Amino acid sequence: MAKYNYDLLSVHTKNNGKNRLIAEGALANQGVDVLKRYSLAGTVLGMLARLKSSKEINLLSLEFEVDTDKGLLSCQAKGRMSSLVAKELEKFRDRVQVLGRPIAVREGGFVYNLYQPPIPSQRFINSMSRLVVQGRELIRPATCTLQVTTKCQLNCYHCSAARYKTDRRTELTAEEMKSVIRQAEALGCFNIVFTGGEPLLRRDIFELISFINRDRAHPSMFTNGLLLTEENISHLCDAGLHSVMVSLDDPRSHVHDELRRIPGGFDKAVAGITRALEAGILVGISTYAGPEDVREGRVKQMIELGKKLGVHEVTIFDIVPTGKLLQSQEEQLLSAEDKRQLIEMEREYNTMEGYPHIITQALVNGPEGSGCFGGFSQFYMTAYGDIDPCDFTPLTFGNIRDEALEDIWQRMLTHPAYAQRCNHCRMQDPAFRSLYIDSIPEDVLLPWPAFDELMNRPNSPMSACTAIR
Fold it and tell me: Taking the model in full, what pTM does it have?
């Protein structure tokens, strides 16, 4: 049994003739004056008045007990302001019950899925503190997906990023990427995902990974798996990669290779998965499901493959009309019955020992889950700096070369489609596509500006070129 204590709020006086109170701890590091926002009890104020210079009082802390052998976790608040986090603690306990069994132990805490920080960990405490200080009414993203390059060895049939690529725009430099990372951390992101193209084709990718402040966020990566060599995996470990998701399109190797248009691609990706697992990296499989995959049992086959390989997680996305498939017909999308089966599958496998943790978009982004993440808990940035709601939505709300990330995020929240929560994937919604997607010309570079005022901005895709090369 291990115990971990985290300081949320401590105060001490700075004796400069005025006995000014100084706040410290995770709550005080959220960009909000907590001493003004939350009134302190009279007894606490009385004690503070008697403080001498350099002495301090802890008003609020969290104590965790972690039993890694039994997979047990408990938490209690301590201090004179413990009631401040009572509601969040209750939600936390309910959430842990829903999360089920941990899939790994990292940094002394439990990992319940590859998209969330270990519990406990300093970045979990920071994310929880942000909710406490800012409240639920202020929407902040938890995840940002950064396309670090458009370069790729493949020419996949279904590539979602193909229509973003052009030689008439320059990709962000390392310093520009680092600026975005710091802005994302300040905005509240604790999951920073590197994607592409193929992120391992970017020469400074290990530098970008190691740049992330581990008290604020952790680095994850989506990859095709072809470059998960022993040398690259060693560099990923040294850089501090939290997890890697390897894309497998089909449990049948020849079908995967046909879709990815590379002979032997499946076997190389599987070999990369094995090497990453042996190095101790958290590994997941990223795949997708169409109607035939559900009805002909291929989703279950992929889960069985994940069990055989020993991966920690399998994420099953829905087919989404985006990228090369932007003009997809309705019959290619999952039916309500298909999604019901996927949800049942997720719940069933997550009670079975020996299987990887299963996540389905059908549940997570549906009415029974959190709904659409885009413009609520997530944003996506292209390699050229365009900020979109997610990597499936070809709408941009600004470019970080033109303005600050927070300003772009706030603009996104003013859009009619993102001003309120949505309990399903917007890109699968015919009404949403009819209003905002179907009118996008077929020969233009994506992403398309969501507001007319963005059309002629210096770094707008429309300013760069008017046709895909």
Answer: 0.92
